[in-house]
Write a structure and sequence with these properties.
Elements (H helix, E strand, L loop, with lengths): L1 H27 L8 E5 L5 E2 L5 E6 L11 E5 L12 E3 L2 E5 L6 E10 L5 E10 L29 H30 L6
Parallel strand pairs: 2-8
Antiparallel strand pairs: 1-3, 3-6, 4-7, 5-6, 7-8
Bound molecules: copper (II) ion.
Copper (II) ion (CU) binds next to loops.
């Protein structure tokens, strides 16, 4: 009788460990596959002489190019729209044509769909010479390199699911073997009784 209780306790311990591992795997999964902005031209915090004809951004992964997936808003300090046409995606590269002229701080707000299917968005600024309101050189621009937190992280990364699924299969097999062995051990004629 105490043997059976002991077995149940051990199976419970295995199951608790199993669920704990699954929890850890899925909690950590979403951070694995996000694409992030790794560079741009003009760069974050750059000071240029005139508004360039286009802005290019380079990401760490191949972006999804679907209608409505990508959105870029470029405005001057007064909020005037400086974009010309839609952003163009080419692999890991995004190009946004600009028009007009600007002086002072230019803000680039972007949203792309990461290669793992998640939307990623952030913004950065650079400045165009000719405006007294521009912060003096030496003031550190706020870095935008840090990966933005995704608003819709729900553990849906394919990679995470695959790893999680494989882990569950292996652990489940282990539990089954454990239970079968325990049963065989118990059903064997015993001299200890
Ligand atoms: Cu993601």
């Amino acid at each position: 009788m105490s043997q059976e209780v002991h077995t149940r306790l051990r199976v419970s311990a295995v199951l608790i460990g199993l669920f704990a591992v699954i929890g850890i795997v899925f909690a950590g999964a979403p951070a694995w596959a996000h694409d992030e902005l790794i560079g741009s031209d003009p760069a974050t915090g750059a000071r240029v002489d005139a508004l360039p004809a286009e802005i290019t951004m380079t990401f760490s992964g191949v972006l999804m190019d679907e209608p409505g997936a990508t959105d870029v808003v470029v405005t001057d300090a007064a909020g005037t729209d400086l974009t010309s046409g839609d952003p163009v995606i080419d692999g890991t590269r995004l190009t946004q044509q600009l028009s007009g002229s600007a002086a002072g701080e230019v803000t680039v707000i972007w949203r792309v769909v990461s290669s793992d299917g998640h939307p990623v968005s952030d913004q950065f600024t650079f400045s165009v010479a000719g405006d007294a309101a521009v912060a003096p050189t030496g003031s550190a621009p706020s870095p935008t390199a840090a990966a933005p937190a995704d608003p819709d992280m729900a553990g849906t990364d394919v990679t995470g699911w695959l790893w999680g699924g494989a882990l569950v299969a292996v652990l489940a097999a282990g539990v089954i073997v454990f239970v079968v062995v325990e049963r065989k051990t118990r059903s064997r004629p015993s001299s200890r009784d």
